[in-house]
Amino acid sequence: MKWLIRYKLYHLPFWAIYNYFSWVVTIGNPMKAFQGLLYAPMTVKYLFYVVVQTIAICFNLYFLFPRYLERSRIGVYTLLTLLTCVAAAFCIIPGYYISSFMAHKTIQQFWGGNACMFQFFSNAILSTLAAMTLAMSIKLGKNWLETRHRQQALEKEKLETELNYLRYQFNPHFLFNTINSIFFLIHKNPDMASASLARFSELLRYQLYECNGEQIPLHNEIAYLENFIGLEKLRQNSSLGLDVDIRRDETDAVTIAPFLLMTFVENAFKHVSRHTDRPNWISIQLRQTGRQLDFTVANSSSAFASNDVLHYSGIGLKNVQRRLDLLYPARHELFIGKEDGRFEVRLRLQLAAIGLQQTA
């Protein structure tokens, strides 16, 4: 079988079947066409068609096509293809004469009273053009499918690369903010700094060992959020009111992309107001019902800070919005807005169950 593919010999049976069905269409009777092939003179003419057209088609597909058409030399390719068809038609014509000679009849006796070289050429050129058109259609269709598969593979690779880039761009951003927080605590309260370092080690362990997959269990992400919130509570002063309400469906195990929710919480702590004459607050609510997740983060904020976040001045929110578009197309709703000193983010996600992969 390898030599059959290596030397393109599979073309012979294919074009033999093609010419047989062409003959069936011409005479309108498959049995009569088959019986005709058993008659030696007719078999000779049939073989001329099959062999010559196969050679012409292979010459077109494996020489003219890559050398001229794939290099956008369409005019030269068209001319050479037509010349190939004409040459093939002239090569088929001797088959008519040999067939009549084998039958011991004249050309007119064997092929009809009007039989002549021009009629033979007309039949051969039309049949060759039809075969060449079919071959080109198959070749172009095959090339289109291969190109599409390559494009899909490249798009998948590009998507994975972009997601990895967004994830790793986000992690240093978080680490930078957290280290700044601990540095602040070292001067303010060494005991709090020690507790912060303990929580920080848990966060690092999570980042290094537990979130390398595309999807992680939701309860792991929630535990990470709670550690982060605990770390932030240690360094915030008493003027900040913090309300955290997390309700998860313990009976439904679902997965989520790592670090997807934490960006919103981080930005809330980063942009919360620092008023001295009115309350400063952050509200975090998480509700999981089956595979649906509703996540709301709101905070008090000054007009300047709200505009800053709303227009995605930070790296984190830009990345998380892009990751949502890539990972949850048509499966997420994201609202970001401000009103009367209140900045709010609402996210609704349709999650995947553990063991199942999300599909676009």
Count of strand segments = 8
Main sheet: strands, sense, barrel: 5 strands, mixed
How many H/I helices? 12
User: What is the helix/strand order?
Assistant: HHHHHHHHEHEEHEEHHEEE
What is the CA-CA span between the terminal residues?
Answer: 40 Å
How is this fold's topology laid out?
Layout: H1 2-6, H2 11-27, H3 30-37, H4 40-69, H5 74-102, H6 107-111, H7 117-188, H8 190-210, E1 216-217, H9 218-235, E2 240-247, E3 254-256, H10 262-271, E4 280-289, E5 292-300, H11 303-310, H12 315-327, E6 332-339, E7 342-350, E8 352-353
Parallel strand pairs: 2-4
Antiparallel strand pairs: 1-3, 3-8, 4-5, 5-7, 6-7
Describe the structure.
The protein has helices at 2-6, 11-27, 30-37, 40-69, 74-102, 107-111, 117-188, 190-210, 218-235, 262-271, 303-310, 315-327; strands at 216-217, 240-247, 254-256, 280-289, 292-300, 332-339, 342-350, 352-353. It has 360 residues and is α+β, with helices and mostly antiparallel strands. It has a five-stranded mixed beta sheet, covered by helices on one side. A hairpin with a 2-residue loop joins strand 6 (332-339) and strand 7 (342-350). Helix 4 packs across helix 7 (117-188), helix 7 runs antiparallel to helix 8 and helix 9 (218-235) packs parallel to helix 10 (262-271). The longest helix has 72 residues, at 117-188. The relative contact order is 0.07.
